[in-house]
Amino acid sequence: MRGDVLGYVVRRILHSIPLVIGVSIIGFGIMHLAPGGPLAVYTLNPTITVTDIERIRIALGLDQPVHIQYLTWAKSMLTGSWGFTFFGGRPVLEVIVERLPATLILMGTSMALAILIGTLIGMLGAVRRNSIFDYLATTGAMLALSFPTFWFGLMAIYIFAINLGWLPSGGMYELGEEGNPWDLLRHLVLPVMVLTLVLVATWSRYARSSFLEVIQQDYIRTARSKGLGTRQIMARHAFRNAVIPLVALLGVQLPSLFSGALVAETIFSWPGMGRLFVDALNMKEYPILMGMIMFTALFVIVGNLLADIAIALIDPRVKLV
Amino acid sequence: MSTKSSLTRRSLIKAAAASGLIVPASGIYSPALAQRRDRIILGTTQEPVQFNPLLYVNAGAENIPEACLFDALWDVNEKGEFVANLAARIPTVENGDISGEGRIWRINLKRDVKWSDGQPFTAKDVEFTYQTIVNPKVAVRSRSGFDLIKNFKVADAHTIEIELDRPFVPFMWAWQNMHIVPHHLLSKEENINTSGFNAKPVGTGPYLLKSRTAGSHMVYEANPNYHRGQAKIKQFIHKFVPDQLVAYGQARTGEIDYLGVSGVPFDRWGEASKLPDRNFFPLAQPWVQFVYFNCGKPQFKDPKVRRALYLALEMQKTIDDVFFGAYKRTLSYLHTSHWAYNHDLKDAGPNPQLAAKMLDEAGWKVGDDGIREKDGVKMKFTMSTTAGFPARQATQAIFQQNWKAIGVEMEIKNMPASVVWGEYTTKSQFDTLLVSWEPTVGMDPDYTARAHSKMIPVKTGSGSNYTQYENAEVDRLLEAGVRQTDVAERKKTYARIQEILLEEVPFGPQGGVFQGQITHKSLQGIKPNQYVVDAAWNVHEWSWG
Amino acid sequence: MTDVPAPATTAAPSRSYAQMIVQRFVTHRMAVIGAVAVLLLCASALFAQFVAPHDPMAIDTTRRFLAPFASWTNPLGTDDLGRDTLSRLLYGGQVSLTVGIVAMITTMLTGTLVGLAAGYYGGVIDNLLMRFVDTLLCFPQVFLLLVVAAFVPPTILSISLIIGLTSWMEVSRIVRAQVSTLKEADFVQASRGFGASNWRIMIVELLPNIMAPVLVAATLKVATAVLMESYISFLGYGVQPPMASWGNMLTNAQGYFDTVPFLAILPGVLITFTVMGFNFLGDGLRDAFDARLKIDP
Fold first, then answer.
1. End-to-end CA distance of chain B
2. C197 compared with B371, residue with greater pLDDT
């Protein structure tokens, strides 16, 4: 069995290589073929003339044909630095990794909370189908999905930070409080609330339909006819089967997690990858943008892979092929 | 420049309450509220990414690490005078350091300066800095001034002799703009662009970089061996608060002792000036906001038309309504407070009737569709600036209305910064731009790069005269101005240039840009300086009173 | 898969089937509310020219920052340049809804086309197209959207296209899944036996039979497109000023957030209202067509 898993993982990784290459080519292509570029940032400096810009273009290697630039970048990607940023001259990997913990803390907390609450709501909704609770939960989820996240974030800041003054409006730590978990918690409340709301909505809808499907299956009906209580049935039979598609969903949802982080981090000045991305976008820092794209792509691929393995571990009927 | 308020304490509180602004006294932000005397927290909305003073691109947040960690040969003070820093004295014709009709410069360096790693600072470092600036492999932002150096000689360990191609008075500014980097560390680097030094810099400056938390703040400690005397405040913290409103809020509560770039939001200036225990002052930023006309386009070829278009704009109204009076109307590319500003310039606008008349006279008659035209060309054009700036968009909306009233149609075409300031600007593809720019060589009034006919990039491949403006008299005056050493003479030259530019309007100035800064009241030694962008230019003199 | 919907080839769908769908939809209370909301919004946007009390771009700085519900001339107050908020909201709705609908059409066309081709032809074409879809799905949409939006000059059309072209991937997956099960069905085989061309089979035989999930997805896509438009406008990559869109009204309001909160609240409420309308509508349609169809929210 263990050898099985290993072989499967290796095969899957080999299969995803063309995917990664595809992602990098598309990403690089979009950025380089479109108008504008990083040199525009230099024009804003009045001492810089066109002669300077042409000189810097050559110094940064931006005068090379696109495919050469791509190969140079790909080489730096494979040799470990992931390229160097234009404006800071630092290795891209280093720049991304120093922002990673903040994003992981924010997204991890939101995701964990959302899964917990969402599964619970979904399960209850399925068991008490068409009850008032189910109705409220379904409508509530719809409402939550309709909020523009950034607006909801602004409103949360307005109410809880500006008007009531209960919570900080942004950032991750107060100065001098770095590493203080209590301080971190206070800063986490608002962004996590905003992110979790949308995630719970999605998650509870999936959980509900997944549980409904399982409940309606024959063996549950059989169990019920044997006189087992709902709680026992859920615990013994339904839960495991209903969770399997949800695990798969987890893998698929990972990229959207980064999108969510992008929005929340901009609104709440969270020092994570999302803000790095927006800043890099404004400056046309190709190396950082490419690094971020590759990073999320790898994240998605690994996420899907882990989800598949997890499903195989939960469900003995599934074989890893 | 000091605080505007001289109110009693009681009326202060009343005013604050009326504006809904009583700062919560509860200890929500307890750690920061306890203001400490051994450190200062300076907040900006931007985060510096490049700590090598030769490599950063634009003035702003990156000037803070530059001022903390590095020194230039000389600084410019709040009166616009040069004061020696790493140089032992300012070179002048009088003291004999400038000779050969302004072509030979002799610079004496201070003797007892050390890099923060203990190595001595010598003429070799200055030479290396110069070599790096002209090194084609290094992405140094500008060579302005340095490209005139014909010969660079290290006379002895503390003396340099520079020979210029031709006399160039603004040469002082070139060195004020470029801080000196260490030869002993960087000369070994294979590629300075990506050197580890850029993130872990070593300088001669008043502070040492202790730690950096990405996306949050940087911590500096005073350099005990600083050659101008150890800084009075032990710790200097540079905090990044991306949202301007939040940053302002933190300056109010005391989480930030000094609010630098981007300052107090314009609509809060009244409120900010009444804050207890805070100093509020509007600080002149070196740049002026303009409408750029592309003289290469058929609509804008005729100076009379540009003049008419400029006359139709309600410049003061945009300043009052959009910038809440924070900008100061100017009629030239200099702030009115600049020593070379021509105070004889008269603001003739807004005068839509005269503008309409001038356009009629120039042959631009109102067509059937209400838009003026001449020889088949419609008086219809676009105006571009960076997308997503509400204040600039509001300015554009007012301009659009002003022009519409005289039969001129302007369409707003804003783009992301990386597009609009790319070839769209440098290759003069725009119709008009809304842009803020400072003079081109430090704060010297020289404007050759922007206004000389030899500096049109689409024609000559060099310079930054993006409006494609050509005027023989301006050319001649610009050439003379950089050779004149007598200040009164120079003033006359540049006064005439400003007069012509206002007459022919290749770029129509709107106002000098100001930012509202807030400091803690007991913070001493801060000297607002309109000749530099960086708030921390004299950080070694700051202290708690 | 045995529960393929009844083939609709013989004639128009039978009367009872259509009746059943309408009946199911009407009993779905939220769906009706959604439909009414959508109709209302579309109507107000469509007739903005007649309904709006003022020119949405008319500046009057003597009447700036007026509070809502205080005067009849500016029922919802005015913004930082004294422009009428109600009028701007109405015209802003035009932008949001146009972008939502055009983006949806783009999404549907691209997604259906790719899904049809992949599902019908199978083999190498299927493989290539689906690998391409996988590749694009590796990019988070906001990511892709912002990168492209940062490069393309913003007009209503370009924004719609950008949103549409970055969100068709799921649709193509849904369509492909449906088509690959349907193509073995008897009526398709029969039609092939009669010598119908591939195109004919795809358009005439297969397409009508997958309309249900596509329609549902389409409604939901309008909702997400409206959200996306507001987000890119909010970040400054949206339509050009002084034209109003709900997203750029929010950006402008951000600076007066603590002093004039209404400027930020109103456009946000309208975005939520619109998105919710379409979401409920889509949800109702889904239930009406088939309770067991699964399309992501």
1. 19
2. B371
The single residue listed with the structure tokens 């971020």 is A292
Quote the mean pLDDT of chain B.
89
User: ∠B145-B150-B156 over CA atoms, to 5°?
Assistant: 100
pLDDT tens sequence across C222-244: 988 998 888 888 777 788 888 88
Quote the minimal CA–CA distance from C233 to chain B in Å: 8
Residue C88 in this model has a pLDDT that exceeds 80: yes
Strands B235-240 and B39-44: parallel
Suggest the residue from B414, B421, B429, B434 to mutate for an interface test with chain C (most C CBs closer than 10 A): B414
pLDDT at C290 over 70: no
Query: Which of C226, C249, C222 has the alpha carbon at shortest distance from C108?
Result: C222
For B351, the token pair is 């005068």
Per-residue pLDDT tens digits for B144-164: 889 899 999 999 999 999 999
Minimal C-alpha gap between A36 and chain C (Å): 7
| Measured CA distances, A118 to A107, A140, A196, A201, C255 (Å) | 15, 12, 9, 7, 35
Taking the model in full, what pTM does it have? 0.85
- Classify the C-alpha dihedral A156-A157-A163-A169 as positive or negative: positive
Residue carrying the six token digits 């297969």: C206
How many other CB atoms sit within 10 Å of the CB of residue A22? Answer: 18
Whole-complex ipTM: 0.83
DSSP per residue, B13-59: HHHHHHTT-PPP-S-TTHHHHS--TTEEEEEESS------TTT--SS
Prior bond of B350 cis (ω within 30°): yes
Closest residue to A36, CB basis, from B49, B137, B422: B422
- How many other β-carbons are positioned within 10 Å of the β-carbon of residue A228? 16
For B182, phi and psi rounded to 5 degrees? -80, 130
Residue A283 CA to residue A279 CA, distance in Å, equals 6
Q: CA of B526: how far to CAs of B335, B518, B536, B545, in Å?
A: 21, 11, 8, 11
